[in-house]
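Lab channel / #folding
Pinned by the channel admin:
"Please post every new chain as: sequence first, then the structure tokens as a reply. Keep commentary short and put observations after the output so the thread stays searchable."

First post following the new format, from NK:
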Amino acid sequence: MTTRKYVSKLRSEQTKGTRERILAGAARITLLDATRLTHAAVAHSAGVSERTVYRHFPSVSALHEAFSKYQERRFGRDQGEELSLDELPTSYERWPARIESTVALDYMVQEPKEPPMLTKSRRKRYQRLERALREVVPDATQTQVRQLVLVFGALLSPEVFRRGRLLLRMDPRQVVPGPAWALRVLIDRLRQGDAPWK
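Reply from TO:
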């Protein structure tokens, strides 16, 4: 006589819910520092025990693989190999809808990884940028000027150098020409009256 394996629908749903909670905890961590994606950090972020994380993901590689699939499910597969420059603006415009159903933005704002003094310093730099841009586009609304501040701020950010070194293995001197050219083009176009909202 063979015995049937007991299957509990409730237990299965609870397991799936715990797994999703763990992966959501991993997502919060990677917003701040992807190198911290460890069982202990994920357990803390998800509000579960480290043992629970190990039960679902026995190794770091299993955790990373599951997290990659989880992110793909949330944001869509990375189509980098089929990248079309003409599609970049449209792809960028879809980002708010992609992160709307997540806690990503709230988490980034709630738990900044930089010290308050650094945030204050950057805020002052952005205010100076805002004043300088207002002189170039005096008819722009405050929101429009701040949109430009974000663009200029991104190009002027030390993050450009970090990503250049980390992702593209570039020396800082090799990074400079591209963003400097983009800044000159933007400033020139704005002075000619060619704002993005016109």
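NK: Residues 27 and 82 are 25 Å apart (CA to CA).
TO: also worth noting, The chain has two domains: 10-77+85-109, 115-191.
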